[in-house]
Amino acid sequence: MISSERIPNNVDLSGNKRLQRALEHWQPKYLQWWRDMGPHGFQDYHQVYVRTAVSVDPEGWANFEYVKLPEYRWGIFLAEPVHDRRIGFGDFHGQPVWQEVPGEFRNQLRRLIVTQGDTEPASVEQQRLLGQRCPSMYDLRNLFQVNVEEGRHLWAMVYLLHSYFGRDGRDEAEELLERQSGNRDKPRILQAFNEPIENWLDFFMFTMFTDRDGKSQLMSLSESSLDPLSRTTRFMLTEEAHHMFVGETGVSRILERTCQLMRQAGFSEDVRKLGGIDIPTVQKHLNQWFSLSLDLHGGEVSSNAASYFANGLKGRAKEETYDDHLLKDAYYHMEFFEDGRPVLKDVLMRNAMNEVLRDWYVGDCGAGVARWNRVLEQHGMSDRLTLPDRKFNRRIGMYGGFHFDPNGVPLSAEEWERRKYEWLPAASDLEYLLSIMAEPVYQPGQFASYIAPPRRGINQLPIDFEYVRTEL
Ligand code: BYC
Ligand code: FE
Ligand code: FE
């Protein structure tokens, strides 16, 4: 079972007996998990046109074929090494990067890798029922492409645990298959990964905003002094770009369709009567997944984050673009919220690292929302989507115990309870979305009433290509 043919890799798997033995034990459990918790109803009788990475160069990366999902060849890849790579920040700045895990940072590194690894299978679990409600075969394929790659991201983290963390690494690798999204007793580690994703608007918002947290965290881990972690996450980032493409274009296509329907119905008519998704519902789902993903960046002031930076374990996105890589006496002007009003205070920059990364993330999200608004603009609509204030709907960090509206205006608990469904999806919104997704669209080239076709197909194939084949 463990062969370089079945497991494409550039980590010399065939010459590494220790890794082979660890994987021999883990891989059958992974496959069982994939069957039980992966795409429901698409394990045995469907062939999916997916991309399999077979090497890290551009050609090996774009290798398309029909596969049955449980037979997907999950591989292990590190980005090419950088010659004479040096530690880019923190107390060890300038020293050579590490090829092994230093004993004193073992626990911190394991925790970071486990937290990262935990999100990958969690997202597959969250998305497992979506195939039954797909808006088209093209979208169904994209869902499965994302799912198999998140599976591969789990493999990437398990590779690090097996190779660098001995016995406890092997135990952690098993526990990654035992926690379950939304499970009361054994939930996934981070909150956003325990939230249900039941409809395709949630899926597109998740891949837009939560996979983008993947991007920001992976950029920050790719700065790590632990070179194998840096190289693994650098290659993962190439796959992340496609996940965000799926989310961004998914919502763009919904907006395009909504604009067509609004015109058809007359501007004031409710597009829901024509089976579309109205802009206020899109905005509510945006609010939901953006705020959940802000929480994924941790507390505004964090000694964990300071210590990750000091020790060189986790840097800033694009660390090389900064001038000061030590941050020994740099400060961040941070807005605190005291007695119901904002107060500016200076926080040691190292303790503000989560907020620095969140700033980068908010900027990246803002650019995406501006691209969505261009669709509305092109259709002559005056409606616009906006990112809610970062204090809105937070559970982690200093705003966690308080309530704010999307403009950042403080609200009492009663007012929040009374008004929250003006800004977040209500049961009736979810019911409506499920009602228009009740029937999956499996005919090549056809699309559900609420979404426009994409500009082009996958791998230069036509939009009506049979991206998922059913075997009878
Ligand atoms: N939910 O010091 P603090 C992806 C806990 S997404 C629940 O502020 P820190 C993907 C925290 O554990 C990228 N608990 O946090 C996307 C700590 O607990 P203890 C995932 C939370 O450690 C889509 C306490 O609160 N990668 O790849 O600085 C599909 C105090 O926290 C949360 C990573 O996350 C939360 N949201 O930062 C598929 C990278 N936030 O110690 C995949 C690795 C915090 O008091 N992880 N807590 O028990 C990290 O870098 C850090 O762990 C975090 C948290 C940035 C997440
Ligand atoms: Fe991932
Ligand atoms: Fe992803």
- Say which CATH homologous superfamily is assigned: Ribonucleotide Reductase, subunit A
Shape: globular
State the end-to-end CA separation.
Answer: 27 Å
What Rg, in angstroms, do the CA atoms define?
A: 23 Å
Number of domains: 1
Give the class from helix and strand content and strand pairing. mainly alpha
CATH topology: Ribonucleotide Reductase, subunit A
Q: Percentage of helical residues?
A: 40-55%
The total strand number stands at: 7
> Tally the helices: what do you get?
12
Major sheet size, sense and barrel closure: 3 strands, antiparallel
Query: What proportion strand?
Result: 5-15%
Mind telling me the CATH class? Mainly Alpha
Strands in their spatial order, largest beta sheet = 2-1-7
Distinct small molecules: benzoyl coenzyme A, fe (iii) ion
Q: pLDDT under 50 segments (min length 5)?
A: none
What's the mean pLDDT score? Answer: 96
Could you spell the SSE succession in H and E letters? HEHEHHHHHHHEEHEEHHE
CATH architecture grouping: Orthogonal Bundle
Describe, in plain words, how this protein is organized in 3D:
The mean pLDDT is 96. This protein is globular. The chain is built from twelve helices and seven strands. The chain has 472 residues and is mainly α. The strands form three sheets. It has a three-stranded antiparallel β-sheet with strand order 2-1-7. It is 45% helix and 7% strand. It has a single domain (13-297, 425-470), classed as Orthogonal Bundle (Ribonucleotide Reductase, subunit A), CATH 1.10.620. Strand 5 and strand 6 (410-411) form a beta hairpin. The two termini are 27 Å apart. Helix 1 (17-37) runs antiparallel to helix 4, helix 6 (200-221) packs parallel to helix 8 and helix 7 (227-265) packs parallel to helix 10 (353-378). It binds benzoyl coenzyme A (BYC) and fe (iii) ion (2 copies). Residues 112, 115-116, 119-120, 123, 150, 190-191, 210-211, 213-214, 217, 295-299, 302, 304-305, 314, 354, 396 line the site of benzoyl coenzyme A (BYC). Benzoyl coenzyme A binds at residues 112, 115-116, 119-120, 123, 150, 190-191, 210-211, 213-214, 217, 295-299, 302, 304-305, 314, 354, 396.
